Amino acid sequence: MTLPFWKTKRLEEMNRDEWESVCDGCGKCCLHKLQDEDTDVLFYTSVACRLLDCNSCLCSDYPNRREHVPDCVKLTRKNIGDIDWMPSTCAYRLLRDGQDLPDWHPLVTGDPKSTVKAGMSVSGRVISELEAHPNLELYIVDWPS
After folding, report:
1. What is the distance in angstroms between the CA of the first residue and the CA of the last residue of the chain?
2. In a domain, 2, yes or no
3. What is the pLDDT along the chain (145 residues), one digit of tens a residue?
4. How far apart are CA 20 and CA 59, in angstroms?
5. What's the domain count of the chain?
6. May I ask which residue range the UniProt record assigns to the signal sequence (predicted)?
């Protein structure tokens, strides 16, 4: 029996399709975050990027997202070790840290909607930045981390 690629390859060794499939589609990386200037503590909000479909957790224009949202962080093989704000459930973070994918991950279940079904996504829990009050402090939550 052959082991799945994420058990035999490091993130740096994955091809583009494998890399993209590691994303569990949770949408947590699309949440606006605030950082305390004095303590550097990071706070997640329940406000999502305007491109995120708040129900399906899919980006409405993934291939061109950085044209619409210039500060959208593109996670790469080179920067994966430097990004420390990813939630603890992030598949890239888990694999980077030598852990396995959770049982609800789409690569494990074969169901692209399994992250949403398992309640591990932002689906139904967030609003678009287009609908939010400008004071993001009003939307600080503790559930993504």
Report:
1. 35
2. no
3. 899 999 999 999 999 999 999 999 999 999 999 999 999 999 999 999 999 999 999 999 999 999 999 999 999 989 998 988 898 999 999 999 999 999 999 999 999 999 999 999 999 999 999 999 999 999 999 988 6
4. 13
5. 1
6. none
- Answer whether residue 1 is part of any domain: no
Structural domain boundaries, residue 25? 10-141
C-beta pairs of 73-81 under 8 Å, 24+ apart in sequence: 73/29, 75/29, 77/11, 77/12, 77/14, 77/19, 80/11
91-97: which pairs have CB atoms within 8 A and are 24 or more residues apart? 91/22, 91/23, 91/24, 92/11, 92/22, 92/23, 95/6, 95/10, 95/11, 95/22, 96/11
Domain annotation covers residue 118: yes
Domain assignment of residue 37, yes or no: yes
How many residues in the chain?
A: 145
Pull the structure tokens for residue 95.
């694999």
